[in-house]
From TrEMBL:
TM ranges: 28-49, 61-82, 88-107, 114-132, 144-163, 172-194, 206-225, 237-260, 266-284
Keywords, alphabetical: Membrane, Transmembrane, Transmembrane helix
Keyword check for Thylakoid: no
Organism: Streptomyces adustus
Region forming the signal peptide: none
PANTHER family per the UniProt record, alphabetical: ACYL-MALONYL CONDENSING ENZYME-RELATED (PTHR22911)
Entries under InterPro entries matching the protein: EamA_dom (IPR000620), EmrE-like (IPR037185)
Family in the record: Belongs to the EamA transporter family.
Protein name, per record: DMT family transporter
Residue ranges annotated for the EamA domain, each copy included: 3-130, 144-283
């Protein structure tokens, strides 16, 4: 059961990332974040009411609030990076977010084992190789790499914070609801500020009603992935669940190859693969 739910998590996260990146190519990234997360917040709010999650409210929700402040920055950076592409490089590099908990552990006095140290070295090598030729090319590609690393740092911070936000399943739903409510508030404020500076909030044709189902899918797939991961972690070894769930970049890369016909240079593909291997080593260490 653990493997099944963990693989479902990687599938949902991978498809959500792919959908967010594609949508950002025709809709402003901030609008994608606000609308998709807004839909997720509404659904989570209904779940919290149905499960009585309000009873889990307490000081731990401040971690969820902090995660909600960081989340929009990570999502915005990641969606913009996916829009710039190629997704086959961007998505695997974002899995370096797991390095954040390792860094926190080092700061608190922990020392990584041999496997974790090897994972860090492999992942850093992967970053360098994945940027390879494109770092010397167009500025757009340099921006994609930078945005991806910013997103990875943000995602890692969110994972560390949300892990401290609850101790029960119902509490997790409440924490995720608070997180996404904060996401929408912060993202909405940023969107308002951007429009005041003249940036478009919507495509030239107005609100993309035709894209609303896709926006809903992005937000709801992310919520569902969090749920399936919780089930996987509760019914088996967390290490197994984490490793299998971390395979979501493969789904994003395959979706980009299948639907967008993306092709990677050999050195970039090798770098992206090394980054993914490094991430798996960190997760299993």
């Amino acid at each position: 059961m653990t493997a099944l739910f963990a693989l479902a998590t990687s599938l949902l996260w991978g498809l959500a990332d792919f959908g967010g990146g594609v949508l950002t190519r025709r809709i402003p990234a901030l609008s994608v974040v606000v609308v998709s997360q807004g839909i997720a917040a509404v659904v989570l709010g209904a779940i919290v009411v149905a499960t009585g999650g309000w009873s889990e409210a307490g000081p731990r929700l401040w971690f969820a609030f902090a995660a909600g402040l960081v989340g929009p920055v990570a999502l915005l950076s990641f969606y913009k990076a996916l829009a710039l592409g190629p997704m086959g490089v961007v998505s695997p590099l974002a899995t370096l977010s797991v390095a954040v908990p390792v860094g926190v552990g080092l700061f608190l006095g922990e020392r990584p084992g041999l496997t974790q140290a090897a994972g860090i070295a492999v992942a850093v090598t992967g970053v360098v190789l994945a940027g390879g030729p494109q770092l010397r090319g167009a500025g757009v590609q340099r921006q994609a790499i930078l945005l991806t690393l910013v997103a990875a740092l943000g995602f890692g911070t969110v994972f560390a914070l949300i892990a401290e936000a609850s101790t029960t399943v119902t509490g997790l739903f409440l924490a995720l609801f608070v997180q996404r409510l904060t996401n929408v508030t912060v993202g909405g404020a940023a969107l308002y500020a951007a429009t005041r500076r003249g940036a478009p909030a919507l495509p030239a044709g107005g609100f993309p009603w035709a894209s609303l189902p896709a926006l809903a899918f992005v937000g709801l797939a992310d919520v569902a992935a969090n749920g399936t991961y919780s089930v996987a972690a509760q019914h088996g070894p967390i290490t197994v669940a984490a490793v299998l769930a971390s395979l979501y970049p493969v789904v994003t890369a395959l979706a980009a190859r299948g639907f967008l016909s993306e092709r990677l240079r050999a050195v970039q593909a090798a770098g992206a693969g090394l980054a993914l291997v490094g991430t798996l080593l960190l997760a299993t260490g």
